[in-house]
């Protein structure tokens, strides 16, 4: 049976620190994660936010239009009739 000497341990530590033993590290098994998944998720989130903001814009424009019409009606109601 082979002996384990301190020189073997020190050599192994030096190689580990240099990264030479990186191939011996445990690796995750199974399918690798899809790198585009995060991008697709972000696109979906931004699309939903855009739709929400467009709806708020549509509501704000409707309110502004209604306020303009009300303002015109009130101006006409408070103006004295024109003399002919």
Mean pLDDT figure: 87
> How would you characterize the largest beta sheet?
none
Structural class: mainly alpha
Helix coverage percent of residues? 55-70%
Query: Percent of residues in beta strands?
Result: under 5%
Distance linking N and C termini: 123 Å
Tally the helices: what do you get?
2
What Rg do the Cα atoms give?
37 Å
Annotation, overall tally of beta strands: 0
Q: Runs with pLDDT <50, length 5+?
A: none
> What is the H/E string?
HH
Identify the overall geometry: rod-shaped
Task: Outline the structure in words.
The chain has 84 residues and is an all-alpha fold. The chain has a domain at 37-76. The chain is 65% helix and 0% strand. It has two helices and no strands. It has helices at residues 6-18, 37-78. It is rod-shaped. The protein starts with 5 loop residues before the first helix and ends in a 6-residue tail after the last helix. The model has no long low-confidence stretch (mean pLDDT 87).
Q: How are the SSEs ordered, and which strands pair?
A:
Layout: H1 6-18, H2 37-78
Keywords:
84 residues, mainly alpha
Summarize this structure briefly.
This protein is mainly α.
């Amino acid at each position: 049976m082979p002996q384990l000497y301190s020189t073997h341990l020190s050599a192994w530590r030096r190689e580990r620190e240099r990264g030479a033993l990186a191939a011996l590290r445990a690796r995750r098994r199974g399918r690798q994660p899809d790198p585009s998944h995060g991008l697709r998720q972000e696109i979906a989130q931004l699309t939903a936010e855009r739709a929400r903001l467009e709806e708020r814009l549509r509501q704000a424009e409707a309110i502004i239009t209604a306020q303009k019409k009300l303002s015109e009606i009130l101006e006409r109601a408070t103006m004295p009739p024109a003399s002919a």
